[in-house]
Amino acid sequence: MTTDGQQPQPTEEQWHAKFLTEAIEAIAARLHALADDVARKAADVPLVGGPGRPNYGKVAADVVQEITWGVANLHMERPTTEAAAADIARAKGV
């Protein structure tokens, strides 16, 4: 607490460290969801062979596409941006 009874305001470095933590946690959550989606694709393997059903190549291609799009949409720039901002704030002492 400050002398006037209020909570001290976080520094710029602390804000960016908080945002960095949130960005990493968001990526982890998206990766968990992606893993669940990919695991569900395994349910398509036993369906191969019947009329109008996928072949093994289609199942594998769907998994590759799910992973490719999932990773591409993780917003990987956010952690590096926040880390750089936190490092700069730390160097400036703000």
Task: Please give a structural write-up.
Helix content is 67%, strand content 0%. With 94 residues, it is mostly helical. It has a domain at 32-89. Helix 1 (12-41) packs antiparallel against helix 2 and helix 1 (12-41) runs antiparallel to helix 3. The longest helix has 30 residues, at 12-41. The protein starts with 11 loop residues before the first helix and ends with a helix.
Features:
94 residues, 67% helix, elongated, mainly alpha
Proportion of residues in extended strands: under 5%
How many separate helices?
Answer: 3
Could you state the order of secondary-structure elements as H and E? HHH
Outline type: elongated
Structural class of the helices, strands and pairings?
A: mainly alpha
Report the end-to-end length measured between terminal Cα atoms: 19 Å
- Helix amount, in percent? 55-70%
Please describe the biggest sheet, giving its number of strands, its sense, and whether it closes into a barrel: none
What integer value in Å does the Rg equal?
22 Å
Mean pLDDT level: 91
State the low-pLDDT regions, or none. none
Q: Quick one: how many beta strands? A: 0
Question: How do the strands and helices of this protein lay out in sequence?
Answer:
Elements (H helix, E strand, L loop, with lengths): L11 H30 L14 H17 L4 H16 L2
Brief account:
By secondary structure, this protein is mainly α. The chain has three helices and no strands. Helices cover about 65% and strands about 0% of the residues.
